[in-house]
Amino acid sequence: LSAKLAAKIRDLRFSASQNDRAAPARKQARLACGGDGSGGAGDVKDGATCAHHAVANIGELGRKAIDAPLKALMKITDEQSSADSAKVKCLRTSVGWFSSPACSLIYQVSKYVALFSSKGYAIGENFALWLAHKLKTTEQLAGDLIGHVEDLLAICGGRDYVFFLDAAVVDRFSQFESLYGYLLEEADLQAEAGGKLRKAIITGFESVYCMSAVRSMAIISEEWLWPCLRAIEPGPQAHILDVCPQLWPCVLAWLEEAAANPQAVIDGTLSLRARLEACGQRTTPLKPPTPAGERRAARAALDMQRIRASLAADAEQLQIVRDMLAGAFAAMAGGVRNHAAEFVGDGHLTVAKITPELRKAMDGVPITSVMAETMFARVKRRADRGGIARHDTRMGAVLAERDGTVEWLRDKPAGEKIWRLAARRWRKGLGSRTMQQEREIKGALKAPEREAKLEKKRGGRKKKAEELERLKGISLARKYSELKKMGNERLAEQLKFYKLIEKKTGFKTTGTGPEMRTQLQSLIFEKFGLGCNDLAEGDAGTDGRESDGLRRKGCRETGGGGKKKKAKRKRGWVYLNDWGWDPTDEFVIERLIGKMVADGGDVPGREGEEIAAGTVLYKVLWEGWPPEIATWEDEDQVPCAAASQLSGAHDRSAAGLTSAAALAAGAVASKAAGTALRGGCWRLPEITPEMTRDWPRQAPLPGRPRE
How does pLDDT run across 517-574, given as a tens digit for each residue? Predict the structure, then answer.
């Protein structure tokens, strides 16, 4: 710089300065205008707030207000939010300072269908192919728009109000013939890509609360946001005092009326556009729309027609949206009083306080700071400079500038020529076809394979559903004696009923006849209670148990065959489900016949005990005793080897012991262990070669024989 120019720059004094309403920015604006930055008597007044920042901040307050009833419906209190903020943040799908229940579904959809992401999401392109094939024959289905992924604006790098602008498009994709249907097909195919995101979006689409939030934001976008965005961009020649002092009081009055009567906004009878036009404000674009822009506007109009029609047909959702809008508009009115304070009420830039001196001082101050934020558009500028117009190669050019490719090319004598050649090669094979035409072709090629997979998956699910319906109609055994007459096929069928229909766990539906009968005895007793054991005294109902030396040390209060016996209870004995035993009796684990996770309520046979939710319990069948006194034991009270036999995991020893050694260690440990069985002590059976025949063996150490 020349000395003369440098001196002029040093002597420059601002007559007015804009800010983004943040406290540091306002202080800097006051300092630039000659104030001391203190905010007191020696300081100057705050300058005008950037209208774009004001709109974004006011919209953010509306979004937070929508969150309030949504949180209440989700049973999330403010205390919970503050006490466990990390959990709530994850629940809401955090996206920086945009994080919100109301925005989470919009963000998830935007992420799933992202076609312009530098990460190159393949799942979005796959959806675009599927959609292009569907739209090849029909643009609309039953009068409703279902496509045009390009209408969804990117969230990353955009202002907070991008969520509002995307809301109507997300509602479009929630239709069964659009993204919602595609995601259901992907779920049927059990596709791995985007699985968690897919589940979250399906859940949001099927939630009346989430969709109420989306539709509330779509209405705010249509009735408030778009008119404001048009009004704050009147053209470069407009003076800030000809726009903002008229705009913000009008917006404030409209928001107050909308908060009192949100139904009028839903109906479209309370129009901010009409109010602004009456105040002489612009509500149309500066430039005439392109043909593509006109088509997009037509689709937006159809979106709003569909949203209003769906609300009119659903009284429950309509009331939720009314509540959300009432809260949002009230909060936004308060936001205008804050973020546009200088233009409303007693502000120093209201219409009544405009003077020629004030106009001169603010001459040249922009209405927004968009010009200072052109860095947001650098990607597009670089792409235009490279002559690359297609989205699938544009991002490649931008990334090439960052990974050293461009720097390498600049060192070449004909670097620019090589760059143009590379761009042409990227597009080779496309010919004169557009990207939409390419998607239609690729989608048509993929469609037959996809339909075949869907048919196979759905066929399997249909067979499973038919099997479940068949099982619901089978005749269940209610007495132990009925099991003795059943073959293995019918026994397995009975077990399938309990596993698939009753959702019981911890057992297999196959095995030997005695194993299945013993398991079913336990399940029948759980379902039908006392009286199901109609077997004669000494009869276990399973040949296998009797041949193993079935013995009953206890006393049964009622005889078999349903005949009652008046047996006097012995003093000092313990009784459970009509069976009694001496407290000194020793009980041996025969097998584990069930597994459950406590839910905090009563556990059968252990009523009155406080068993923490989440506790893993195993059902123990005691040797020589019927299933009526099989007890639910805590996992830490069951030897690891016994539990491993139930789960199929044989080697549970972290010390590297063989299964036989682990079982022996468990037997020793169990002698002093407590049990839910009242009275008596218990142990594991002695280890025999037959028991260990099928257990896996450890590999021998080098130079040593296998044990």
Answer: 888 988 998 888 878 888 887 777 776 554 333 344 445 555 444 454 555 777 878 7
Q: Which of 591, 592, 609 is nearest to 601 (CA)?
A: 609
Q: How far apart are CA 121 and CA 129, in angstroms?
A: 13
**Do the beta carbons of residue 484 and residue 520 sit within 8 Å?**
no
In Å, how far are 109, 432, 510, 672 from 638, measured between CA atoms?
48, 72, 24, 12
* Residue 167 burial (10 A CB sphere; 0-12, 13-18, 19+): buried
Element (H, E) at 552: none
Q: Determine how β-strand 681-683 pairs with β-strand 586-597.
A: parallel
Sign of CA dihedral 332, 338, 342, 348: positive
Phi, psi of 621 (to 5 degrees): -95, 125
The conformation of residue 683, written as its DSSP 8-state character, comes to E
- Cα distances (Å, whole numbers) of residue 17 to 46, 233, 371: 9, 19, 14
> Among 251-255, 330-334, 470-474, 570-574, which stretch is predicted with the lowest mean pLDDT?
570-574
What pLDDT was estimated at residue 548? 38
CB 246 within 8 A of CB 231: no
pLDDT attached to residue 64: 86
Measured over the CA atoms of residue 641, residue 644, residue 650 and residue 656, the dihedral's sign is negative
Distance of CA 198 to the CA centre of its chain: 8
Q: Which two tokens stand for residue 683?
A: 């142990």
The answer to whether the beta carbons of residues 274 and 250 sit under 8 Å apart is no
pLDDT at 493 (0 to 100): 92
Separation CA 269–CA 285 (nearest Å): 22
H/E segment holding residue 475: none
Q: Write the pLDDT tens digit of every residue in 428-461.
A: 655 567 777 777 888 888 888 888 888 888 888 8
CB 581 within 8 A of CB 574: yes
Do 619 and 594 form a contact (C-beta atoms < 8 A)?
yes
Instruction: Please tell me which of 113-122, 195-204, 546-555 the model is most confident about, judged by mean pLDDT.
Output: 195-204
Which SS3 state, helix, strand or coil, does residue 702 take?
Answer: coil
**Residue 328 pLDDT greater than 90, yes or no:** yes
Distances (CA, A) of 201 to 126, 128, 183, 221: 16, 17, 8, 22
Q: Residue 492: exposed, middle, or buried by beta-carbon count in 10 A (0-12, 13-18, 19+)?
A: middle
Instruction: Return the minimum-mean-pLDDT range out of 16-20, 179-183, 351-355, 494-498.
Output: 16-20
Measured over all CA atoms, what is the biggest interatomic distance in the chain, rounded to whole angstroms?
Answer: 120
Taking the CB of residue 597, how many other CB atoms lie within 10 A of it?
11
Q: What angle do CA 251, 227, 223 make, to 5 degrees?
A: 80
* Helix, strand, coil percentages for the chain (3-state, nearest 5): 55, 5, 40
CA torsion, ordered 221, 222, 224, 227, to nearest 10 deg: 120
